[in-house]
Amino acid sequence: MSPTLDRVHRDLAVRIAKRPHADGTREARLLIEHVTGRSPSAQLVAGQDDVPVETIAQLEALASRREAGEPLARLIGKAAFWDFEVGINAATLIPRDDTGVLVEAALTFLAPDSHAHIVDIGTGTGIILLALARERPHITGTGIDLADEAVAQAAANARALGLEDRLHFRQGSWLESFDGPADMIVSNPPYIRIPDRATLSDEVRLHDPALALLAGDDGLDAYRKILPQAHGKLRSGGYLLVEIGHDQADPVSTLGAAEGFQVLDTRQDLSGNDRVVVFRR
Ligand SMILES: C[S@@+](CC[C@H](N)C(=O)[O-])C[C@H]1O[C@@H](n2cnc3c(N)ncnc32)[C@H](O)[C@@H]1O
């Protein structure tokens, strides 16, 4: 006899909960949704339904990958950010809540009726531009990434959210292919020191793309490229906002000041760590 959906959910939740920091109950619901197409609330109603053996086999395979440390978002191919969901792929970072600090900071410089053109370099899934475009209905944006597959994913995410008329994505290295001027430039670049790679959790080290994480021996390589390029491609009075590692506010501010930027502000995340530096040209 096939087990019921409630039973399958319970067994999956117990397996997944063995992973440190995993929310077994919720993650099991999302895996079942991914495989069966039934939403978590529909699963509650259908708890006594039998589950076919093929479905159980698919779920068990996913649970094994989750037990082995693969992030849930990689298994279901999507992740939440701000107030929406995006598709992810092997070339994109899984969105981090901390990046919301950059979005919030950028919004303070964008009036509700802003028509600014914003350039996001290292756009990944496109989350920064997508969040800004949802909050400011008249802005336009260009998202640039070195990885073709990231560009394709960001464009698909914009289409899924109905933002493809205002946001465009293309392949390129930082601002090299952008003529400018931009009204605002935003970036969450790679900023992890290569020697620190071994200290990352398995979920990050083994499953996020290295191109999205690592930035030379001191973690500052991307800023060394971005800051001079951004100064040349930002209109006078425009803002550059970059996400940083918790101990990078001083060196990144110094690099920006050396390019002629005014260092306006440093914003902190919910843990009190420096997370964003704001520059003005
Ligand atoms: C930390 S991830 C951020 C992704 C996304 N913006 C976010 O906040 O989730 C950094 C991104 O920079 C991209 N990247 C790395 N080197 C680059 C380069 N030279 N030019 C453009 N993008 C680059 C990576 O492919 C990756 O998508």
Write down the oligomeric state: single chain
Low-pLDDT ranges = none
Largest sheet: 7 strands, mixed
Q: How many strand segments?
A: 9
Count of separate DSSP helical elements: 12
What is the CATH C level class of the largest domain, in words? Alpha Beta
What is the string of SSEs from the N terminus onward? HHHHHEEHEHEHEEHHHEHEE
Description:
With 281 residues, this protein is an alpha/beta fold. It has 2 domains: 5-75, Ubiquitin-associated (UBA) domain (Helicase, Ruva Protein, domain 3, Orthogonal Bundle); 78-280, Vaccinia Virus protein VP39 (Rossmann fold). Helices cover 40% and strands 19% of the residues. The protein has 12 helices and 9 strands. The chain has helices spanning 5-16, 24-36, 40-45, 53-67, 72-76, 99-107, 127-135, 148-160, 202-205, 210-213, 221-233, 249-258, and strands at 78-81, 84-87, 117-121, 140-145, 167-171, 182-187, 234-243, 262-268, 274-280. The strands form 2 sheets. The protein has a 7-stranded mixed sheet with strand order 5-4-3-6-7-9-8. Strands 1-2 form a two-stranded antiparallel ribbon. Helix 6 (99-107) packs parallel to helix 7. The radius of gyration is 21 Å and the shape is elongated. The structure holds S-adenosylmethionine. The site of S-adenosylmethionine (SAM) has 22 residues, from helix 7, strand 4 and helix 10.
